[in-house]
């Protein structure tokens, strides 16, 4: 299929920079961008401690069933640098404090790594790849006080500085060409009210990320087919299955990779390959009309030679055939 060949032609490491020139004038919120779900769980290991976002029962079960719990907690095998190299441009961050420490940690029921290593890798990546833009979505904060938010925001401001893309009233003015000219490469979405004082970070409503809460492929496909989005904001399609406690107990000796990530790649990704990026048109909220994709996230994004990011990046080629959905920025 010719569409598959064009995906192979992309150098995943620099795919934004390598997009056809006319797509660099398309608003970022109308491009298809691959992301990873619970991006930092690769840092969870057998020595990880139970974190503040854990279900209470985990405290009792973890010492007895450590291996099983790890298999159902870890959602990514590749570290931050590897994810960026295979084209991932959106990272889903869950953050927690630790008692008697001023450091911040990634979390998903269990503590992952302290945050500075991964976030510094993002800075090194954008420094080496001037045409690429990375979205950091600070999704959840566990054990945070107002002081912790101040510390974290100051850390992010100091780390990325002039590379940060400040929020704007009209997100449609933000294109790759626009960002390249200004040498801005990092978008931080900060999903907490603390952000309203800081124009350098994007507010949650600028990139809605509705959680499907589905443990079946059919339920997930139905959710993705019928989700709605606003034309003036970005959007995250979460192509992930969420196992319930019962789901896990019935598949105790298996893993999230085998029972959630593999079925999504086999059965949901082919459906997603029929979606298109672009501008949500007036009246497109009617039943049966799919919302255009922007960010799409999945578990274990490196599977099968990075088939997931390749598929999502390739959706952008549809904008060449159907340019009516492109908003032209005259700014």
Strand % is 5-15%
Mean pLDDT: 92
From the structure provided, what is the oligomeric state, counting identical versus distinct chains? single chain
Query: Regions with pLDDT < 50 over 5+ consecutive residues?
Result: 1-5, 324-331
Major sheet size, sense and barrel closure:
8 strands, mixed
The 3D shape can be described as globular
Count of individual helical segments: 12
Give the N-to-C terminal Cα separation. 38 Å
Number of E-state strands: 8
Our Rg estimate from Cα atoms comes to 19 Å
The percent range for helix content is 25-40%
Features:
single chain, 331 residues, alpha/beta, eight-stranded mixed sheet, 8 strands, 12% strand, globular, disordered N terminus, disordered C terminus, phosphoric diester hydrolase activity
Question: How does this structure look, described?
Answer:
With about 325 residues, the protein is α/β, with parallel strands linked by helices. Helix content is about 35%, strand content about 10%. The chain has helices spanning about 1-10, 55-60, 65-75, 80-85, 115-130, 145-160, 175-180, 215-225, 245-250, 255-270, 305-315, 320; strands spanning about 35, 90-95, 105, 110-115, 135-140, 185-190, 235-240, 295-300. The chain is globular. It starts with a helix and ends in a 10-residue tail after the last helix. Mean pLDDT is about 90; it is low at about 1-5 and about 325-330.
């Amino acid at each position: 299929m010719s569409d598959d060949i064009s995906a192979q032609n992309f150098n995943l490491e620099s795919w934004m920079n390598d997009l056809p020139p006319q797509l660099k004038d398309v608003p970022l919120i109308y491009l298809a961008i691959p992301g990873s779900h619970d991006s930092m769980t690769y840092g969870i290991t057998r020595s990880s401690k139970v974190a503040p976002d854990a279900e209470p029962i985990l405290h009792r079960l973890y010492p007895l069933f450590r291996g099983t719990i790890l298999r159902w907690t870890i959602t990514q095998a590749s570290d931050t640098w590897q994810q960026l190299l295979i084209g991932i441009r959106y990272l889903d961050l869950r953050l927690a404090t630790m008692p008697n420490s001023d450091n911040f940690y990634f979390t998903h029921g269990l503590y992952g790594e302290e945050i500075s290593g991964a976030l510094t890798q993002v800075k090194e990546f954008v420094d080496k790849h001037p045409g690429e833009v990375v979205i950091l979505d600070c999704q959840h904060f566990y054990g945070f006080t107002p002081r912790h938010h101040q510390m974290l925001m100051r850390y992010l401001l100091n780390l990325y500085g002039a590379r940060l893309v400040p929020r704007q009233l009209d997100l449609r003015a933000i294109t790759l060409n626009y960002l390249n000219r200004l040498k801005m490469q990092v978008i931080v979405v900060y999903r907490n009210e603390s952000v309203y004082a800081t124009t350098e970070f994007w507010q949650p409503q600028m990139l809605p990320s509705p959680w499907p809460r589905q443990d079946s492929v059919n339920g997930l496909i139905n959710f993705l087919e019928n989700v709605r989005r606003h034309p003036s904001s970005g959007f995250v399609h979460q192509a992930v299955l969420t196992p319930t406690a019962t789901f896990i107990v019935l598949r105790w000796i298996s893993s999230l990779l085998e029972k959630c990530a593999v079925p999504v790649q086999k059965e949901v990704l082919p459906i997603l390959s029929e979606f298109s990026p672009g501008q949500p048109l007036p009246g497109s909220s009617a039943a049966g009309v799919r919302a255009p994709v922007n960010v799409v996230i999945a578990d274990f994004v490196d599977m099968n030679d990075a088939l997931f990011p390749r598929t999502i990046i390739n959706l952008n080629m549809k904008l060449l055939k159907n340019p009516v959905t492109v908003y032209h920025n005259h700014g």
